[in-house]
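Notebook, p. 212. Picked up where the previous page left off. The plan for this session was modest: take the two constructs that came back from the sequencing core last week, fold each one, and keep the raw output in the notebook itself so nobody has to go hunting through shared drives later. Recording the first one now, exactly as returned: residue sequence, then the structure token string.
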Amino acid sequence: MGSWAEGIAVREANVFAADDGYFVNAEFDLELTPALEEALSRGVSLTFQVSLDVIEPRWYWFDKEVGTLRQERRISFNPLTRAYRFSIGSLYLSFNSLQDALQSLARLNRVRIGGPGSLRKGGHYEARLQMKLDVAQLPKPFQVDALSSNEWNLTSRPLTWKIAP
């Protein structure tokens, strides 16, 4: 992807069908700013929101949403154990390095977005994927910093692509 600094960028994404529904695989390039890395090393948890919308464009009416994903992904550091923790809901993984934890945070693998009949064969759909740091979940003093500094605002550009099952 050429020269790339800290931030979030969608590297690749695809929606695919399986017997039990429709799923997404995606990979993000994710690099923390120095301010976020320091906050994390001091025990501040960072929460990221991943959103995916699959819509069926309709010329005669509003677009129809046929698949959706809203996922909260959190990364934290425990200074006592010197371990990083990546979690989605109550599921979590522990890592010895920040790089390994970020790699897990930045990868969606077979995440369900719809049931078996949610997209019809021959239909034309549009998918839109984005990841961002949820600054509203930072401690209050950091939220104030986020208002005045770009170092606290990490958001990927939305990736939009066509799907034709």
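Okay, moving on. Second construct, recorded in the same format:
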Amino acid sequence: MPITLYAASIPVFRQMLTSLNDILVKAEAHAGAKKIDPNALLQARLFPDMFPLLRQVQLASDFAKGTSARLAGADVPVYEDKEQSFADLHARIAKTLAFIESLSPEQIDGRPEQEIVIQPDTPRERRFASQSVYLMHYGLPQFFFHVTTAYALLRHNGIDIGKRDFVGTY
């Protein structure tokens, strides 16, 4: 039986966003236990020209909600990117999870050959011939990049997390 677009997207986003949220809980606890200013972790970068942890989480959320919305033919929710704390990031992830959970398999699987057109922070648009090309070649890789980078930032900063934390519950 072929895999559906819904099965390849929503459960994956749910699993990884939940995992990311759990990793942030561990990071917050670590900061408290070690008397580290939480902002030191929230603003941590792997290299000076990379986004900090806060932005990595925002972007992971953006790709989960944006990809899901486009697959469903729905409006992409707009978030203001005003998060400044772990609590704010938890709330953003919860809001993203609530949105993606509101989308039905029928909404996502009903238009497999639909072209998807985006303008990713540039005046130039990008066209994807079908939902599956958009999901597999753009949406999921972008999402995983930001989740992985958030994980790497925290691991690099001494948070006791590993592969099981990254993968989460499935």
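Notes on construct two before I forget. Helices lie at 5-33, 38-42, 53-72, 86-101, 105-109, 131-156, 163-167.
Flagging for discussion at group meeting.
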